[in-house]
Amino acid sequence: MKRKLIVSSSPHLHKDESVIKIMWMVVVSLIPAGAVGVFVFGLYAFWIIILGIITAVFTEGLIEILTKRKVTILDGSAVLTGLLLAYNLPPRVPLWLPIVGSFFAIAIGKQVFGGLGQNIFNPALVGRIFLMASWPKYMTAFTKPFDTVTSATPLALLKEAKFIEQITYLDLFLGKRGGCIGEVCIFSLLLGALFLLLRGYISWHIPIPYILTVGLFAYIFGGKTLFSGDWLFHILSGGLILGAFFMATDYVTSPLTAKGQVIFGIGCGIITSVIRLWGGYPEGVSYAILMMNAVTPIIDRYTKTRIYGTRCAK
Amino acid sequence: MVGLEKPPLPKQVYIPLSQHTGKACIPEVRPGESVVTGQRIAGIQAAIWAPVHASLSGKVTAVQDWPHPVLGRAKAIVIESNGEDRVAEDKRKREPEEVNKLTSEEIRNLVFSAGIVGMGGASFPTHIKLNPPKPVDTLIINGAECEPYLMSDYRLMVEKTGEIIKGIELITKCLGVKRVIVAIEENKPEAIKNFNYELRITCLAGRQANYELRILKSQYPQGGEKQLIKNLLKKEVPRGKLPFDVGVVVHNVATCFAIYEAVYLNKPLYERIVTVTGSCVLNSKVLLVRIGTPIKELIAFCGLKEEPAKIILGGPMMGIAQFTDEVPVIKSTTGIILFNQKEARIYEEGSCIRCGACIRECPVGLMPCLINLATERGLWQKAKDYGALDCIECGLCSFACPAKRRLVQSIRRAKLELGK
After folding, report:
1. What is the pTM of this model?
2. Which of B309, B318, B369 is nearest residue A6 as measured by Cβ atoms?
């Protein structure tokens, strides 16, 4: 035996899986939704997405260099944050807005906590609500599809109790409506979500209870009388599908166990519905997820798994 | 699948004094003394122990420190072979009628003096498990062999079906159980076929116990006692208790075979079946090996495709990586696996992204990522609260972790700290 043998602790086999692969798979799954967004709102939206991604990657690298840590910009997590932030912006925002938003998302939302895996809140949403609070004028200026004429989103129209002009469920499903870049095409979002579900990268435990809760609330309280709400409209509009499948499911900021995840999803659904139906904003997905991010540690504490040989804590 | 093979007898064997759970033995032979195959060469006065036997006839040349597959280095008796492999004259075979007349006490004594320990890897002295402090009603025979790569139990079950069943009958007699479950994983069709056939004969012969052959889905880590009990009987062994607390005793098939050999053939445990495999091995083989044989001789017998970067004794999930190929085979060595550079690669540890894969995989219901975090901060009590001591070290969490975190390693660390 010439060479020295490698000695390490068992197990000696490892699954062919990595954080990098997971992150890039999520990025890939989001491409169809962005492509439709660009198709609907024009090439300008494409530049918003690109700037969001580049800024996120650059900020992550810069902070890691300054704090003398390993540079991890290729692990896909910064790309994903930049991408999600851009998807959550209206299609006509000034081009500096995604830059500021991504910088804030990575710097304050993620790196101040210690980087990947350490943050409490979903970084992309931290960036988004920072922009909402600072530049509400830009953040609420939506445009009509295939047009640059300003128009409100279907949810905003609903909030102002205005007549919703000829918008069909099919339009909502395919993305022919006003809204943020990445949230409008439900079909392509579901395509991406299905891919992630089948590959096991996300599970149904958060998104399905989330969406069902929103639907249920809309049905009960969303109409003129009880039990007459347009639940399908509520599910298809706004950022619910994007938020439920791609942001509420963020591993770092959501509960660890299946039971906890269901609670998390229902919680998100309740908060989203309350904001939509009775709150001051037309849409509440971002706030709902961020609030539930905050209670995730408590959910984790009360939804621990049962250890073999111990009595059920029923 | 390849048949059972016997490599040439080694020139020298290194027989460690500690090959069982419990106290290490004290040598009963001195350098220069002649020994015969199967002669007892070490023992001790203790509650939990098993004697050690010579695996060759020849001369004791030394009692010295030597690499040990589990302990790193430990005292071993070195025997130089005289090439005769002579067995002691008083070790004659027993006729079936003679065996039938043996009492439980006599069987237990034979098992004890043969130095038999649990051969699935746990090495707990078997005679103690034949005398449970509480009455038991079910005997489970573990033929799951759930770790990948290993074929020792499978080969044994195929080639020595009748002998294993004779061993099982002896255990049944000692325990007085009425129910015997033979559990085999579905990926061992030949073993299932043979047991099906042999057990029918056994039942026709009018034995008193009720035999059941249960075919399990192939699933890791099924071979663990507690997992097996849960899967077969749908009940759990309470935390901190042993299987007999729920009326069950589990024995590995290789142990049953050793019991057969001890009682019928009057042969102590100085030989066992070892799988030699891995990407670096030219011809993977299942070998009948003398205890104390340095593994390098077995590796040479199978041939090398390329220089191994890692040598694992046991399975790839729970086995122990060795620092030298001088280590000998001991009673609990189930396999020798040789990995190449690529397979032996050590991954860099990434940050936990809380994906929960470790939690979904854990067969015991632990949250390994949280134990890991507590351990990293030196919060041992917290690690204990999270159930670090319940970990069976099956390795599934580390296997599944996309960040390649050393979860099992950190839990072992916590166990060590908590045991201080």
Report:
1. 0.92
2. B309
Report d(CA A30, CA A35) in Å as an integer.
Answer: 9
Predicted confidence (pLDDT) per residue in B274-295, tens digit = 999 999 999 999 999 999 999 9
ipTM: 0.92
Establish if B363 touches chain A: CB-CB under 8 angstroms.
yes
- Searching chain A, which residue's CA lies closest to the CA of residue B239? A309
Q: B259 with B171: CB under 8 angstroms?
A: yes
Domain boundaries, chain B: 4-89+268-339, 96-264, 357-419
Nearest to B284 by CA among B274, B272, B276: B276
Considering only CB atoms, B316 lies closest to which of A1, A12, A305, namely A12
Of A39, A19, A302, A36, which is closest to residue A189 (Cα–Cα)? A36
- Architecture in CATH of B96-264: 3-Layer(aba) Sandwich (3.40)
Q: What is the pLDDT of residues B42-65, one digit of tens each?
A: 999 999 999 999 999 999 999 999
> How confident is the model at residue B208, as a pLDDT?
62
pLDDT for res A313: 43
Q: For chain A, list the domains and their CATH numbers.
A: 19-302 (1.10.3430.10)
Number of inter-chain CB pairs under 8 A, A vs B = 152
A256 contacts B359? CB cut-off 8 A: yes
Residues (pLDDT < 50) of chain B are none
The matching CATH number, chosen from 3.10.20.600, 3.30.1490.190, 3.40.50.300, 1.10.8.60, for B4-89+268-339 is: 3.10.20.600
Q: How many CA atoms lie within 13 A of B140 on its CB side?
A: 27
